[in-house]
Design a protein that fits this description.
The chain has a 3-stranded antiparallel beta sheet, with helices on one face. Helix 1 packs antiparallel against helix 2. Helix content is 39%, strand content 15%. It is built from 3 helices and 5 strands. It is globular, with a radius of gyration of 17 Å. The chain has 142 residues and is an alpha+beta fold. The longest helix has 31 residues.
Length: 142
């Protein structure tokens, strides 16, 4: 694969495909860090650029840019599926949590009580529930 893809710097944009609540934007940089630690050939450092108004728990609209990743093409292509899987899973949980929090009239607490989350994803799922739960200071719900 390295022989087919040029090593020169490239960029990739992450774009929302539907209206949702964003969760997991911090995973992008962490996944790139883990990949760099596992792959000894990575010498360049990545850059993840987001708009200041884009953070976990914010409402996104279809077609809105979430982040731009600048790194060499080989690393971006190697990590893209993992990054998108984490963002899709966490944003999906946050969106469904926000929709259910709208149904609660009185102040309630949210619990992430799934008995068997996939191995290693319990903390991530609980964080996504926190991002999606609507509080008084939260942005407008879906």
């Amino acid at each position: 694969m390295p022989a087919l893809i040029p090593i020169s710097g490239r960029s990739a944009a992450i774009i929302a495909r539907q209206d949702c609540i964003l969760a997991g934007i911090g995973c992008v940089a962490r996944i790139l860090d883990v990949y760099a630690a596992l792959d000894g050939a990575v010498t360049a450092h990545y850059e993840v650029t987001t708009h200041p108004e884009i953070f976990d728990g914010v409402r996104l609209h279809k077609g809105q840019s979430v982040a731009v990743i600048q790194h060499n093409a080989r690393v971006i292509l190697s990590c893209e599926r993992v990054i998108l899987n984490f963002l899709q899973r966490m944003s999906g949980i946050a969106t469904l949590t926000r929709k259910s929090s709208r149904r609660c009239r009185a102040p309630r607490r949210a619990f992430s009580t799934r008995a068997r989350p996939p191995p290693g994803l319990r903390v991530i799922d609980k964080n996504a529930v926190r991002c999606g739960w609507r509080t008084k200071s939260s942005p407008r719900p879906l």
